[in-house]
Structure formats: C-alpha cells, structure tokens
Amino acid sequence: MTAPKLTEILETALYVSDLDAAARFYGGLLGLEMIQRVGNRHIFYRVGRNILLIFNASETNTSDTKARFPVPAHGAVGAGHMCFTADKAALQSWLKLFAEHNINIEADFQWPNGARSLYIRDPSGNSIEFAEPFLWSG
C-alpha cells in the first residue's frame, strides 16, 4: 500500500519555559492572533491558515487519560525552530521593529536561490526565522 499524499502542515509546536513571556513575544511583539490560552499549559495562535502551538514544556510531559481530550504526553528539550514567511518589504519592517525592541538578529543572509532569511530567538531560546516565501521553491 502506498501512503496517501500529505498536502499541508496544520500546526507547528514550540515548547517554552515561560508562557507569559511567550505571550508577550508572539501575541504582543509579533502580533499573532491568540485563539486559545489554557492556564499555564498552552497558548494557540492563528498564522494564516495554520496554527502555532506554544506549550509550557513542563505541563505537557504527562498525559491525562481521563481528560476530555486525552492528548498523549509530548514535549521537547532544547531550542526548537520555526519559520514565518515575509516578503522583502516585510523583512525590512521586521528588522526595524526588532531594532526598536533591542532584539538581537542572530543571522541575516541570502540563500543560493536568492531568498533572504533572518533569525532571532524567542524568550525561551527557540530559533525563529523569517524568510522570503520562495525559499523552498524548486
């Protein structure tokens, strides 16, 4: 049997140590639309048609089989990575905003296909990339 074709990633998860700091970063600084927060466990943000899941790593490493939604235990140790798309003009605007907020640009370069990427860190040390949408074009 051949596996069915996967066509899109629905959600991406990052794990943080301070959910309030993550809320200030993702909801405040980046301006993402929060769709759900559950205590100190998680915050979910809408990004276009996709969802960014921000989990407090210490709260998701166990599962509750009696919960309404018995999601299995999950988590990660160490810095994760994700990438937002941003066109050339948006990249310039992000650079200005990050400078205003004293956020260090860890890397800013062009890939061999000409797409530009810039990298920063969120408050928990996750690597957050902003790249031109044609980065992975064939």
Structure characterization notes:
This protein is an alpha/beta fold. Helix content is 17%, strand content 33%. It contains 2 helices and 8 strands, in the order E-H-E-E-E-E-H-E-E-E. It has a 4-stranded mixed sheet with strand order 1-4-3-2, covered by helices on one side. The longest helix is centred in the C-terminal third of the chain and has 13 residues, at 88-100. It starts with 10 loop residues before the first strand and ends in a 7-residue tail after the last strand.
Backbone shape: globular
Label the structural class: alpha/beta
- Straight-line N-to-C gap: 28 Å
Number of strands: 8
Strand order of the largest sheet: 1-4-3-2
Largest sheet: 4 strands, mixed
Show unreliable segments: none
Defining traits:
single chain, 138 residues, alpha/beta, 4-stranded mixed β-sheet, 2 helices, 8 strands, globular
What is shown here, in short?
With 138 residues, the protein is of the alpha/beta class.
What's the SSE blueprint?
Elements (H helix, E strand, L loop, with lengths): L10 E6 L2 H11 L3 E6 L3 E6 L2 E7 L24 E5 L2 H13 L6 E4 L5 E6 L5 E5 L7
Parallel strand pairs: 1-4, 5-8
Antiparallel strand pairs: 2-3, 3-4, 6-7, 7-8
